[in-house]
Design brief:
Blueprint (H helix, E strand, L loop, with lengths): L2 E11 L4 E10 L3 E5 L6 H8 L7 E6 L2 E2 L4 H5 L2 E4 L11 H11 L5 H10 L13 H14 L4 E5 L7 H14 L6 E5 L3 H7 L2 E6 L2 E7 H7 L1 E5 L1 H6 L5 E6 L4 E5 L2 H7 L4 E4 L2 H13 L1
Parallel strand pairs: 3-8, 3-9, 6-7, 7-8
Antiparallel strand pairs: 1-2, 1-4, 4-5, 9-10, 11-13, 11-14, 12-13
Length: 286
């Protein structure tokens, strides 16, 4: 299986914030979910992949091509949806269709109109009058219409109601059925990524806190629920952050199967992606 995207030792230093030695790989035919708190570096990483900002170090390749040296060839294979959608203008979708057709040789007007219909978007309504959710759906329709091999999505499901989000996620799963197609998606909605992502990369303060197959990560981590007295008996090296409340304690367990063997009397539940994020941040603050 060929890799769709390889990010190796990526560095970008803004002075007040540094993207530091970020590495991950998106295999062909898969979805990589990029998670992290606000300001963790998700959007900066995506902008570096798109060569929208100059990187200070590292290498990025898309389908084996250098993202900088082969920029035109790389971007001809990408569909992109950024958080601000990029479609705040006085045009209608019908006018946008004609404009995009002149820009992208592979633009598929028929497919674009299919998605407009599927998303209940009027071809004649002025885009600046669309709601945020409507603009996001329009951006997704445009991204699919360029017939990309790699979709790069920054908070693409934000602003959408649960029903529409579920429909979009199904579209993503359909898109990657061909192993030539892949998706890199950043999202704060970790439940969406738990549904569709094959891999997850967690950025924390500009660094990779963890990266790997989603199912393996969810199978490895756990959430300990116990009393304060029980928590004090646990080896802190086995934990990745804790939350102490009035009526009990919770903590992230780095290896729940090994932990259960060492502490069989303590309750360890499966952890989800949100648990991993929250407790990692708490552990870093301690």
């Amino acid at each position: 299986m060929n890799n769709a995207l390889e990010v190796s030792h990526l560095t970008k230093d803004y002075g007040s914030f540094k993207l530091d030695d970020v590495s991950f790989t998106v295999p062909g035919g898969t979805i990589m979910g990029l998670i992290g708190e606000n300001g963790a570096g998700k959007s900066t990483t995506i902008k570096c992949v798109l060569n929208m900002v100059h990187r200070d170090g590292g290498k990025i390749s898309v389908f084996g091509l250098d993202a900088v040296a082969d920029e035109q060839a790389v971007k001809s294979q990408l569909g992109v949806v950024l958080d601000d959608c990029g479609y705040y203008n006085p045009f209608t979708p019908a006018q946008l269709d004609r404009i995009q057709k002149g820009i992208y040789p592979q633009w598929d007007s028929g497919l674009f109109r299919q998605y407009l219909s599927k998303f209940s978007l009027s071809e004649k309504k002025v885009i600046k009058d669309f709601s945020k959710g409507m603009r996001m759906k329009l951006a997704l329709a445009a991204a699919f219409a360029v017939r990309p091999k790699l979709l790069i999505l920054d908070e693409a499901t934000s602003g959408l109601d649960p029903v529409v989000r579920d429909e979009i996620l199904d579209e993503f799963l359909e898109f990657i059925q061909d192993e030539d197609h892949s998706i890199l998606i950043s999202s704060h909605i970790t439940s969406d990524l738990e549904k569709v992502a094959d891999y997850v990369t967690y950025l924390h303060k500009g660094k990779v806190a963890l990266t790997g197959a989603k199912d393996e990560l969810l199978d490895t981590y756990g959430k300990l629920v116990c009393s304060r007295a029980d928590l004090e008996q646990v080896d802190p090296d086995l934990l990745g952050g804790c939350r102490i409340g009035q009526f009990g304690c919770e903590a992230l367990v780095k290896d729940r199967h090994g932990f259960r063997l060492r502490y069989p009397d303590l309750t360890v539940e499966p952890a989800n992606l949100e648990d991993i994020m929250i407790f990692t941040v708490k552990g870093d603050a301690q």
